[in-house]
Each structure stands twice: as structure tokens, then as C-alpha cells.
Amino acid sequence: MNMKFFVGVLILVLATCSIYNPTPRGSGLEGQVSIGPVCPVVQQGQECPDQPYQATLTVISPSGVVIAQVKSDAQGRFRVPLVPGEYVLHPESLDGVAFAGDQAFVVETGRYTQLTVNYDSGIR
Predict the structure, then answer these.
(1) Plot region of 110 (φ>0 → left; ψ -120 to 50 → alpha; else → beta)
(2) Distance CA 11, CA 93 (A)
(3) Which of 41, 90, 109, 122 has its CB surrounded by the most CB atoms within 10 Å?
(4) Which mean pLDDT values do the consecutive 10-residue runs of the chain (124 residues) have?
(5) What are the beta bridge partners of residue 68?
(6) pTM of the full structure
(7) What gap in Å lies between CA 19 and CA 15, rounded to an integer?
(8) Using H for helix, E for strand and C for coil, what is the string for the chain?
(9) Residue 89 CB-density burial (10 A; 0-12 exposed, 13-18 middle, 19+ buried)
């Protein structure tokens, strides 16, 4: 076997292995989005539970880099694969009325972090 060929192949393999392209494997963020109140006038003794909410959620690094964006489904559920690390979940407010605050979270290896996102509807 030609030694130059062997060295060339070895360099190519090492260069390919050193490219940093993290792929999430079995870890990330999942949870439930709800909105409330949803009743215009809540009277004592009358139930008015929060409802599932379809929302756009943006995952940001602590330095402000957008990592991913996900939409919750009709039941308010969402799931986004992420590599282990620290993140901030930023719930988008597309209608200008409903809003929810940012939440910092940590993803651990091999686990999905659970979060609940509660939007305030602005109804009073």
C-alpha cells in the first residue's frame, strides 16, 4: 500500500471526524402550552380553566442566538430535539395581546426537559 495514499486517507478521516455538527440524540425540550383566562367574566363558583393554545416558541442560546423554533399543536403540546446545554424558551406573541414570559432551562443528555408555558390572554 502506498504510504502517501494511507496518510491522505487518514487526514481526510480525521478532518471529517473533527467537524462539529451536534445532532440531538434523545434529548431536548417538550411541554404544554395553555392560555387563560378564556372567559370574559368569571363568577365565583363557576369554573373557567385555561385552554390548550397553539403558539410559536423560539429556543435561544444564553447569548441570544436562535437555535430552533417550534409550534405547539392543537392540544398545546410541543417537542423539539436539542443537544444538551443551557437555553432560553421565548414564547412569541403574534397577536399582540396574549403573552408569556421567557423561561431558562437546561437539557441533560438522554432526557427531554419538561416545561409548561402559560400565556396570559389579557381578558379581565
Answers:
(1) left
(2) 49
(3) 90
(4) 48 40 79 92 79 97 96 98 97 88 97 97 82
(5) 59
(6) 0.76
(7) 7
(8) CCHHHHHHHHHHHHHHHHCCCCCCCCCEEEEEEEEECCCCCCCCCCCCCCEECCCEEEEECCCCCEEEEEECCCCCEEEEECCCEEEEEEECCCCCCCECCCEEEEECCCCEEEEEEEEECCCC
(9) buried
